[in-house]
Design goal:
The protein is mainly α and 327 residues long. The chain contains 13 helices and five strands. The chain has a three-stranded parallel beta sheet.
Length: 327
Protein backbone atom coordinates (compact mmCIF):
# COMPACT_ATOMS: atom_id res chain seq x y z
CA UNK A 1 0.00 0.00 0.00
CA UNK A 2 1.32 3.43 -0.96
CA UNK A 3 0.80 6.37 1.38
CA UNK A 4 -1.09 9.05 -0.52
CA UNK A 5 -1.91 12.65 0.39
CA UNK A 6 -3.86 15.24 -1.55
CA UNK A 7 -6.31 18.08 -0.94
CA UNK A 8 -8.56 20.74 -2.44
CA UNK A 9 -9.11 24.33 -1.34
CA UNK A 10 -12.57 25.19 0.05
CA UNK A 11 -12.89 28.29 -2.13
CA UNK A 12 -15.17 28.85 -5.09
CA UNK A 13 -17.29 25.95 -6.33
CA UNK A 14 -15.99 22.43 -6.89
CA UNK A 15 -16.48 21.59 -10.55
CA UNK A 16 -16.32 18.69 -12.96
CA UNK A 17 -12.60 19.26 -13.52
CA UNK A 18 -11.98 18.78 -9.79
CA UNK A 19 -14.00 15.57 -9.88
CA UNK A 20 -12.38 14.08 -12.98
CA UNK A 21 -8.86 15.28 -12.32
CA UNK A 22 -8.76 14.57 -8.58
CA UNK A 23 -11.69 13.17 -6.60
CA UNK A 24 -12.60 10.39 -9.07
CA UNK A 25 -9.00 9.19 -8.88
CA UNK A 26 -9.04 9.39 -5.07
CA UNK A 27 -12.11 7.14 -4.91
CA UNK A 28 -10.22 4.51 -6.89
CA UNK A 29 -6.96 4.95 -4.96
CA UNK A 30 -8.55 4.55 -1.50
CA UNK A 31 -9.28 0.88 -2.12
CA UNK A 32 -5.64 -0.23 -2.31
CA UNK A 33 -3.70 2.57 -0.60
CA UNK A 34 -3.33 4.42 2.70
CA UNK A 35 -5.00 7.71 1.77
CA UNK A 36 -5.38 11.09 3.45
CA UNK A 37 -7.53 13.73 1.74
CA UNK A 38 -7.41 17.19 3.24
CA UNK A 39 -9.54 20.33 3.00
CA UNK A 40 -6.68 22.82 2.62
CA UNK A 41 -8.26 25.93 4.12
CA UNK A 42 -4.93 27.55 5.03
CA UNK A 43 -4.06 27.60 1.34
CA UNK A 44 -7.43 29.18 0.58
CA UNK A 45 -6.66 32.32 2.61
CA UNK A 46 -3.66 33.23 0.43
CA UNK A 47 -6.33 35.33 -1.29
CA UNK A 48 -9.08 37.27 0.49
CA UNK A 49 -12.01 35.14 1.71
CA UNK A 50 -15.29 36.01 3.39
CA UNK A 51 -14.95 34.22 6.78
CA UNK A 52 -18.59 33.12 6.91
CA UNK A 53 -18.48 31.81 3.35
CA UNK A 54 -15.20 30.00 4.01
CA UNK A 55 -16.67 28.16 7.01
CA UNK A 56 -19.61 27.02 4.93
CA UNK A 57 -17.37 25.99 2.04
CA UNK A 58 -15.31 23.77 4.35
CA UNK A 59 -18.42 21.73 5.18
CA UNK A 60 -19.56 21.85 1.55
CA UNK A 61 -16.28 20.35 0.33
CA UNK A 62 -16.37 17.71 3.09
CA UNK A 63 -19.87 16.68 2.03
CA UNK A 64 -18.85 16.58 -1.62
CA UNK A 65 -15.84 14.38 -0.81
CA UNK A 66 -18.22 11.88 0.81
CA UNK A 67 -20.92 12.27 -1.84
CA UNK A 68 -18.38 11.56 -4.59
CA UNK A 69 -17.41 8.31 -2.90
CA UNK A 70 -14.60 8.99 -0.45
CA UNK A 71 -15.14 6.43 2.32
CA UNK A 72 -13.95 7.51 5.80
CA UNK A 73 -13.49 3.84 6.64
CA UNK A 74 -10.86 3.64 3.92
CA UNK A 75 -9.41 7.19 3.85
CA UNK A 76 -9.00 9.97 6.37
CA UNK A 77 -10.54 13.40 5.80
CA UNK A 78 -9.60 16.42 7.90
CA UNK A 79 -9.34 20.21 7.88
CA UNK A 80 -5.79 21.48 7.41
CA UNK A 81 -6.05 24.37 9.90
CA UNK A 82 -7.16 22.00 12.68
CA UNK A 83 -3.72 20.40 12.70
CA UNK A 84 -1.07 22.96 13.78
CA UNK A 85 1.71 20.58 12.76
CA UNK A 86 1.33 21.81 9.18
CA UNK A 87 2.31 25.38 9.93
CA UNK A 88 5.00 24.35 12.40
CA UNK A 89 6.76 22.13 9.86
CA UNK A 90 6.28 24.80 7.18
CA UNK A 91 8.37 27.22 9.27
CA UNK A 92 11.16 24.67 9.65
CA UNK A 93 11.13 24.07 5.89
CA UNK A 94 11.09 27.82 5.23
CA UNK A 95 14.48 28.01 6.87
CA UNK A 96 16.07 25.74 4.24
CA UNK A 97 14.07 26.99 1.22
CA UNK A 98 15.97 29.27 -1.18
CA UNK A 99 14.14 32.54 -1.86
CA UNK A 100 15.00 32.32 -5.55
CA UNK A 101 13.42 28.90 -5.88
CA UNK A 102 10.08 30.26 -4.67
CA UNK A 103 10.37 33.22 -7.04
CA UNK A 104 10.56 30.77 -9.95
CA UNK A 105 7.31 29.02 -9.10
CA UNK A 106 5.08 29.39 -12.17
CA UNK A 107 1.83 29.79 -10.22
CA UNK A 108 3.32 32.55 -8.08
CA UNK A 109 4.57 34.44 -11.12
CA UNK A 110 1.20 34.16 -12.85
CA UNK A 111 -0.91 35.13 -9.82
CA UNK A 112 1.40 37.89 -8.59
CA UNK A 113 1.31 39.53 -12.03
CA UNK A 114 -2.48 39.64 -11.78
CA UNK A 115 -2.56 40.81 -8.15
CA UNK A 116 0.50 43.10 -8.34
CA UNK A 117 0.55 45.18 -5.10
CA UNK A 118 -2.03 42.86 -3.56
CA UNK A 119 0.40 39.94 -3.64
CA UNK A 120 0.97 38.54 -0.14
CA UNK A 121 3.79 36.68 1.58
CA UNK A 122 1.31 33.81 2.01
CA UNK A 123 0.91 33.45 -1.75
CA UNK A 124 4.69 33.49 -2.16
CA UNK A 125 5.16 30.88 0.58
CA UNK A 126 2.25 28.65 -0.50
CA UNK A 127 4.51 25.90 -1.94
CA UNK A 128 6.40 25.48 1.35
CA UNK A 129 3.18 24.92 3.27
CA UNK A 130 2.18 22.44 0.58
CA UNK A 131 5.51 20.66 1.10
CA UNK A 132 4.79 20.45 4.83
CA UNK A 133 1.32 19.04 4.10
CA UNK A 134 2.87 16.24 2.08
CA UNK A 135 5.95 15.44 4.14
CA UNK A 136 4.11 15.20 7.47
CA UNK A 137 2.56 11.85 6.53
CA UNK A 138 5.50 9.97 4.97
CA UNK A 139 3.64 10.44 1.70
CA UNK A 140 4.89 8.35 -1.20
CA UNK A 141 2.56 9.58 -3.95
CA UNK A 142 0.71 12.87 -4.46
CA UNK A 143 -2.19 12.89 -6.95
CA UNK A 144 -2.02 16.36 -8.48
CA UNK A 145 -2.90 18.24 -11.63
CA UNK A 146 -0.15 19.18 -14.06
CA UNK A 147 -0.22 22.75 -12.70
CA UNK A 148 0.82 21.51 -9.23
CA UNK A 149 3.61 19.19 -10.39
CA UNK A 150 6.21 21.93 -9.90
CA UNK A 151 5.20 22.22 -6.24
CA UNK A 152 5.67 18.49 -5.71
CA UNK A 153 9.10 18.78 -7.32
CA UNK A 154 9.93 21.52 -4.80
CA UNK A 155 8.72 19.20 -2.03
CA UNK A 156 11.09 16.52 -3.28
CA UNK A 157 13.96 19.01 -3.37
CA UNK A 158 13.31 20.14 0.20
CA UNK A 159 12.99 16.58 1.51
CA UNK A 160 16.28 15.59 -0.13
CA UNK A 161 18.02 18.75 1.08
CA UNK A 162 16.77 18.28 4.66
CA UNK A 163 17.76 14.60 4.68
CA UNK A 164 21.24 15.38 3.36
CA UNK A 165 21.83 18.10 5.97
CA UNK A 166 20.17 16.61 9.06
CA UNK A 167 19.89 12.88 8.43
CA UNK A 168 17.13 10.69 7.02
CA UNK A 169 13.84 12.25 8.16
CA UNK A 170 11.41 12.58 5.27
CA UNK A 171 10.09 10.20 2.62
CA UNK A 172 10.70 11.73 -0.83
CA UNK A 173 7.29 11.72 -2.59
CA UNK A 174 6.41 11.34 -6.27
CA UNK A 175 3.67 13.16 -8.19
CA UNK A 176 0.93 10.95 -9.59
CA UNK A 177 -0.72 12.38 -12.70
CA UNK A 178 -3.08 10.57 -15.06
CA UNK A 179 -2.29 12.39 -18.29
CA UNK A 180 -5.55 11.70 -20.10
CA UNK A 181 -7.60 13.54 -17.47
CA UNK A 182 -5.01 15.71 -15.77
CA UNK A 183 -6.34 18.93 -17.31
CA UNK A 184 -10.03 19.42 -17.98
CA UNK A 185 -10.37 22.69 -19.81
CA UNK A 186 -12.91 25.49 -19.78
CA UNK A 187 -16.00 24.94 -21.94
CA UNK A 188 -15.63 28.49 -23.27
CA UNK A 189 -11.84 28.93 -23.38
CA UNK A 190 -10.47 25.43 -24.04
CA UNK A 191 -6.86 26.61 -23.92
CA UNK A 192 -7.32 27.36 -20.19
CA UNK A 193 -8.00 24.87 -17.40
CA UNK A 194 -11.53 24.66 -15.99
CA UNK A 195 -11.34 26.87 -12.90
CA UNK A 196 -13.28 27.69 -9.76
CA UNK A 197 -12.45 31.36 -10.39
CA UNK A 198 -13.45 31.47 -14.08
CA UNK A 199 -15.10 34.81 -14.80
CA UNK A 200 -17.24 33.19 -17.51
CA UNK A 201 -19.98 31.27 -15.70
CA UNK A 202 -20.47 29.05 -18.75
CA UNK A 203 -16.86 27.83 -18.58
CA UNK A 204 -17.14 25.43 -15.63
CA UNK A 205 -19.67 22.73 -14.72
CA UNK A 206 -20.06 23.00 -10.97
CA UNK A 207 -20.90 19.81 -9.08
CA UNK A 208 -23.88 21.54 -7.46
CA UNK A 209 -25.24 23.18 -10.62
CA UNK A 210 -28.88 22.35 -11.37
CA UNK A 211 -29.29 19.68 -14.10
CA UNK A 212 -30.80 22.15 -16.58
CA UNK A 213 -27.90 24.54 -15.98
CA UNK A 214 -25.40 21.74 -16.67
CA UNK A 215 -27.18 20.79 -19.89
CA UNK A 216 -27.26 24.42 -20.99
CA UNK A 217 -23.52 24.87 -20.34
CA UNK A 218 -22.65 21.78 -22.37
CA UNK A 219 -24.93 22.74 -25.27
CA UNK A 220 -23.31 26.20 -25.33
CA UNK A 221 -19.75 24.86 -25.11
CA UNK A 222 -17.55 26.21 -27.89
CA UNK A 223 -16.50 23.88 -30.71
CA UNK A 224 -13.83 24.01 -33.40
CA UNK A 225 -14.01 24.80 -37.09
CA UNK A 226 -15.20 21.87 -39.14
CA UNK A 227 -17.75 19.28 -38.09
CA UNK A 228 -15.54 16.26 -37.36
CA UNK A 229 -15.71 14.94 -33.78
CA UNK A 230 -12.09 13.92 -33.31
CA UNK A 231 -9.36 14.19 -30.69
CA UNK A 232 -6.59 16.37 -32.10
CA UNK A 233 -4.10 19.02 -31.05
CA UNK A 234 -5.74 21.25 -33.63
CA UNK A 235 -9.21 20.78 -32.12
CA UNK A 236 -8.84 21.90 -28.49
CA UNK A 237 -12.54 22.39 -27.82
CA UNK A 238 -13.79 19.05 -29.16
CA UNK A 239 -10.80 17.21 -27.66
CA UNK A 240 -11.74 18.62 -24.26
CA UNK A 241 -15.37 17.50 -24.64
CA UNK A 242 -14.19 14.05 -25.68
CA UNK A 243 -11.93 13.88 -22.61
CA UNK A 244 -14.87 14.76 -20.35
CA UNK A 245 -17.16 12.26 -22.08
CA UNK A 246 -14.57 9.48 -21.80
CA UNK A 247 -13.92 10.21 -18.12
CA UNK A 248 -17.58 10.13 -17.06
CA UNK A 249 -18.60 7.20 -19.26
CA UNK A 250 -15.48 4.99 -19.14
CA UNK A 251 -15.69 4.76 -22.95
CA UNK A 252 -12.34 5.25 -24.66
CA UNK A 253 -11.82 8.30 -26.85
CA UNK A 254 -11.23 6.18 -30.00
CA UNK A 255 -14.56 4.42 -29.35
CA UNK A 256 -16.30 7.78 -28.98
CA UNK A 257 -14.70 9.06 -32.19
CA UNK A 258 -16.05 6.02 -34.01
CA UNK A 259 -19.49 6.33 -32.41
CA UNK A 260 -19.89 9.93 -33.59
CA UNK A 261 -18.23 9.60 -36.97
CA UNK A 262 -20.38 11.53 -39.45
CA UNK A 263 -22.66 12.88 -36.72
CA UNK A 264 -23.11 16.50 -35.67
CA UNK A 265 -22.13 18.46 -32.59
CA UNK A 266 -25.74 18.75 -31.43
CA UNK A 267 -26.24 15.01 -31.00
CA UNK A 268 -22.78 14.64 -29.48
CA UNK A 269 -23.39 17.39 -26.88
CA UNK A 270 -26.84 16.05 -26.00
CA UNK A 271 -25.38 12.62 -25.26
CA UNK A 272 -22.47 14.20 -23.37
CA UNK A 273 -24.90 16.13 -21.16
CA UNK A 274 -26.77 12.89 -20.34
CA UNK A 275 -23.49 11.15 -19.49
CA UNK A 276 -22.37 13.99 -17.21
CA UNK A 277 -25.73 14.12 -15.45
CA UNK A 278 -25.67 10.37 -14.85
CA UNK A 279 -22.61 11.00 -12.69
CA UNK A 280 -23.53 14.31 -11.08
CA UNK A 281 -27.17 13.73 -10.09
CA UNK A 282 -26.34 10.84 -7.69
CA UNK A 283 -23.59 13.00 -6.18
CA UNK A 284 -26.08 15.83 -5.65
CA UNK A 285 -28.63 13.48 -4.08
CA UNK A 286 -26.07 12.12 -1.62
CA UNK A 287 -24.82 15.65 -0.90
CA UNK A 288 -28.35 16.82 -0.04
CA UNK A 289 -28.75 13.93 2.40
CA UNK A 290 -25.47 14.73 4.12
CA UNK A 291 -26.32 18.43 4.50
CA UNK A 292 -29.65 17.74 6.22
CA UNK A 293 -27.55 17.43 9.38
CA UNK A 294 -23.86 18.23 9.76
CA UNK A 295 -23.41 15.71 12.58
CA UNK A 296 -21.97 13.04 10.26
CA UNK A 297 -19.63 15.56 8.63
CA UNK A 298 -18.32 16.72 12.00
CA UNK A 299 -17.83 13.14 13.17
CA UNK A 300 -15.80 12.30 10.05
CA UNK A 301 -13.71 15.46 10.41
CA UNK A 302 -13.07 14.88 14.12
CA UNK A 303 -11.94 11.31 13.54
CA UNK A 304 -9.79 12.35 10.61
CA UNK A 305 -8.13 15.12 12.61
CA UNK A 306 -7.38 12.90 15.59
CA UNK A 307 -5.90 10.10 13.47
CA UNK A 308 -3.81 12.33 11.23
CA UNK A 309 -2.41 14.32 14.16
CA UNK A 310 -1.13 11.07 15.67
CA UNK A 311 0.74 10.38 12.46
CA UNK A 312 2.00 13.90 11.80
CA UNK A 313 3.27 14.34 15.37
CA UNK A 314 5.76 11.50 14.83
CA UNK A 315 7.23 13.07 11.69
CA UNK A 316 7.23 16.57 13.18
CA UNK A 317 9.11 15.43 16.28
CA UNK A 318 11.71 13.70 14.10
CA UNK A 319 12.20 16.94 12.13
CA UNK A 320 12.42 19.11 15.27
CA UNK A 321 14.92 16.74 16.88
CA UNK A 322 16.97 16.67 13.68
CA UNK A 323 17.41 20.46 13.61
CA UNK A 324 17.94 20.74 17.39
CA UNK A 325 14.67 22.34 18.45
CA UNK A 326 13.31 21.85 21.99
CA UNK A 327 15.03 20.41 25.02
Amino acid sequence: MSKIFSGIQPSGNLHLGNYIGAIKQWVELQNDNDCIFCIVDLHAITVAQDPKVLKEKILEVTALYLACGIDPQKAKIFIQSENPHHTELAWILNCITPFGQLERMTQFKDKSQKQQEGTTAGLFDYPVLMAADILLYDTQEVPVGQDQKQHVELTRDLAEKFNARFGQTFVVPNPRIIKETARIMSLQEPTYKMSKSDADMLGAINLLDAPDVITNKIMKAVTDSGSEIAYSGEKNAVSNLLSIYSAVSNISIPELEEKYRGKGYGEFKKDLAEAVLSIIIPIQDRYSQLRESDDELNRVLDEGRDETMKRSSIVLQKAKKAVGLGR
